[in-house]
Amino acid sequence: MKVARDPGELGRGSRAVALGTFDGVHLGHRRVIETAIAAGPEPTVVTFDPHPRTAFGNRVQLLSTLERRLELLAALGVEATLVVDFTLDLARLEPEEFAEQVLRPIGTEVVVAGTDFRFGHGRRGDLDLLAGLGFDVRPVPLLEHVSSSRIRELVEAGDVEAAAQLLGRPVEVEGVVVTGEARGGTLGFPTANLDVRPELAVPGNGIYAGAAAGHRAAVSIGTNPHYGGRERRVEAFLLDFSGDLYGRRLLVELWQRLRDERAFADEGELIAQIGRDVEAARAAKPPVKTS
To answer: How many CB atoms lie within 10 A of CB 177?
Structure first.
């Protein structure tokens, strides 16, 4: 998939454009993208980074990094993506200006978006306006109860199974593996400690079953209360794995929440519980089937 940051870099061509932020690339987003792919011209996405709400000073816990968003779009069959830098200047553009400066130069013929999509100064632009400008518009009805906001709520609550049903894939936590306190190794369960970017949504504290790097994983999210920790961490023990993950980008899927984190009477009790968590992770199944 070709990725561009400027319309001129992408070039002009006959394009069916799916328009939106697409944070998390959930089931509703997929319907929009699949409609663009089926339209005929080269399936292209025009998306925004950073998230538009952050340009107005709002805090948004993202479901995916831009890198992961682009990977998910490519996996769906998108052939080109224009990542538009969302600034206050962009937000001030009249909808007609946005169409002439962003959509027209890349050869957009078909525009596909959710029926609630709005853009331009004062959110005045919609698909009807684009139709009036000569674009072939294809509105896609919203999926009931499926939204990035709802998924964020479920993730924050630790309900990764319900969130997966709306995403159409398991919830993921992404980060770079960094050095930790190496306490897991002394207990017999060495963990990969993730440095997760602060703008990303991380599920509520607890112990989860999941997978990473092709291995089942038992994942701890929280402060490690048994040792009196205060810093919130994401640590994954990869079953049957040997090797060095330091410095690598790691995507950790969370399939099932197993239990709350807690302190134990002694280290022996902690080790026994970790052993049970590992066996639960080994027996766990993905919350949704993915192609």
So the answer is: 20
The pLDDT value recorded for residue 204 is 96
Please give the helix or strand (H or E) that residue 8 lies within, else none.
helix 7-10
Residue 218's Cα: distance from chain center in Å? 21
Q: Please give the CATH architecture assigned to the domain spanning 170-283.
A: Beta Barrel (2.40)
Superfamily of domain 2-140 in the CATH hierarchy: HUPs (3.40.50.620)
* Cis amide bond preceding 139, omega within 30: no
Task: Kindly report, residue by residue over 92-125, the tens digit of the pLDDT.
Answer: 999 999 999 999 999 999 999 999 999 999 899 9
Which residues, in sequence order, are bridge partners of residue 253?
172, 211
d(CA 219, CA 284): 13
Average pLDDT estimate for 235-248? 95
Which range, of 173-177, 178-182, 253-257, averages the lowest pLDDT?
Answer: 178-182
Q: Do the beta carbons of residue 133 and residue 99 sit within 8 Å?
A: yes
Q: Are strands 80-85 and 2-4 parallel, antiparallel or unpaired?
A: parallel
d(CA 185, CA 189): 5
Write out pLDDT tens, residues 66-75. 999 999 999 9
CA distance between the termini of the chain: 19
CA separation for the pair 120, 92 (Å, rounded) = 7
- Respond yes or no on whether the N-terminal peptide bond of residue 50 is cis (omega within 30° of 0): yes
Q: Where are the domains of the chain?
A: 2-140, 170-283
For helices 27-38 and 66-76, give the axis angle rounded to 10 degrees: 50
pLDDT > 70 fraction of the chain, expressed in percent and rounded: 97
How high is the pLDDT of residue 182?
A: 63
Neighbours of 213 (CB within 10 A): 16
Other C-beta atoms within 10 Å of 256: how many?
19
pLDDT band at 54 (very low <50, low <70, confident <90, very high): confident
